[in-house]
Amino acid sequence: MKTLKFNGVIIPDAVKTAYDYVKRNNVTPNIVTNFLEGAKGEDVLISMSSGGGEITAASEMYYALKKYQGKVNVEITGNSASAATIVMLAADHIAISPSASVMIHNIQSGAQGDYQELGHQAETTKNLSAGFADMYAKRMNKSVDEVKSLMDATTWYNAKQAKDVGLVDEVLFESTPMMVASDDLMLSDDAISKINTLINEENSDKLMVHFDNEQMESIKNMIDEKISTLKAEFEDNNSADKPLKNQKFKPLFLGGI
């Protein structure tokens, strides 16, 4: 499985040179699309640790991942916050490290100007935030109004909470499932656990018998007596007073009459 390290701020392609110059980790739409082209339809893994960034760039990444033919897996190794969560939602399966986190909030703007400019920008960010709230709501199985309240509050989730609310599918390292390659039916971990419980219950029901020394000596004497009786009977049946019975069949074994 091919892996893309999705670490750093999400930025448009046009400003990558400046971010590279100041040595700040970044991810651009071109990085994602070039990676997917190189994967050629194979399943991919996005190893994510990003605090977010520019919304338009994140939306382009979401679109590219959604269109990709192979399965897209995301593993959150540090955090997935703000615009990075939009990219995260494009995955078919989302896992998170136990120490990682997820954060959702409203879109922010650095707009300047008079009340008209600011009012227009406020309405724009409100509408865009509502669109993302709808995406979160579908993933979390909550109402849009509930999610809007969570975004208004800038809500952080630890790994367990992120799984509980449905933002991620799995917390990494919680269990180690058996990896198999077989066309035959294999028992699940749960089935094996139940079978082991039944075995233990059956073993606990078995009758355990213990004998003291006197009882063991009595049993030994009974066995010895029986052996002696059988031995006497055997010797009596093969005594010297019955030679003619055996002589009768002797010629057959010697080949004559």
Overall description:
- The chain has 257 residues and is an alpha/beta fold.
- The chain has two domains: 2-105 and 154-171, 2-enoyl-CoA Hydratase, Chain A, domain 1 (Alpha-Beta Complex), CATH 3.90.226; 187-257, no CATH class.
- It is built from eleven helices and nine strands.
- The chain has helices at residues 16-21, 29-39, 55-67, 83-88, 115-140, 144-152, 159-164, 189-205, 213-237, 243-247, 250-254, and strands spanning 2-7, 9-10, 26-27, 44-50, 72-81, 93-96, 101-104, 155-158, 170-171.
- Strand 5, helix 4 (83-88) and strand 6 form a beta-alpha-beta unit.
- Helix 2 (29-39) runs parallel beside helix 3 and helix 5 (115-140) packs across helix 6 (144-152).
- The longest helix is centred in the middle third of the chain and has 26 residues, at 115-140.
Tags for this model:
9 strands; alpha/beta; 2-enoyl-CoA Hydratase, Chain A, domain 1; 2 domains; two-stranded parallel ribbon; 257 residues; 50% helix
List the helices and strands and how they pair.
Layout: E1 2-7, E2 9-10, H1 16-21, E3 26-27, H2 29-39, E4 44-50, H3 55-67, E5 72-81, H4 83-88, E6 93-96, E7 101-104, H5 115-140, H6 144-152, E8 155-158, H7 159-164, E9 170-171, H8 189-205, H9 213-237, H10 243-247, H11 250-254
Parallel strand pairs: 1-4, 2-3, 4-5, 5-6, 5-7, 6-9
Antiparallel strand pairs: 7-8
